[in-house]
# Entry
Amino acid sequence: MRIDKLLANSGFGSRKEVKKLLKSGQVKADGEVVKDPKTHVDPDSQEVTVQDAIVEYREFIYLVMNKPAGLLSATEDLSQETVVDILEPEDAMLEPFPVGRLDKDTEGLLLITNDGQLAHQLLSPKKHVPKTYFAEIAGCVTEEDIEAFKKGVTLDDDYLTKPAVLNILESDSTSKIELTITEGKFHQVKRMFEAVGKKVTYLKRLSMGPLTLDEDLEPGEYRELDEEEVEELRNAQALSID
Ligand code: URA
# Structure
């Protein structure tokens, strides 16, 4: 990778600031002064130093956020605040992005990473990585809804959803439920309830594959995943609901 990117990603300032640093002759790769920002270095096999101190390069970042309502699941937006806007600068500088989208008014588990391969794998429709949501529903959710969701319901664009597991926690004039789906169509949970004549009034994602939302993570807070959790995500298995 380019040495200016490596330095910028390691906290040595913007590309412009890094260019100045390089020009000053304080940066070395394997003991040789490097001044050209376009110089390619291999962080795995080469030692990069700034003022003779070794630069510890970290390529990937894996964060789990309890997304608050009101933020967009995007990296940037001209007029609205995004989940990346609330990251600490040392995390944001690694240019992570949200894996999939939660609606602006949806809360809960959101994985944010710069590992494109893992993101692709988790979002692949072939993988069927299960996602569980808690929702409050205006209306009484019934056994018939459980059966309908198990068979699949037809959305407003005629798409027939894959089998999903609906668990009723409370049902009255308003209901509380948990729903596990294995796909990620646009507004899927809301549209599945619309398909059975009901409205989602509150939605929160509780889990994605092996990753579960920490109870002590307040909306807007996030933490880094440990290596074991990242490995588990890499091995996330498809859930088969029949
Ligand atoms: N389904 C929805 O309707 N909205 C979300 O944010 C996630 C799943």
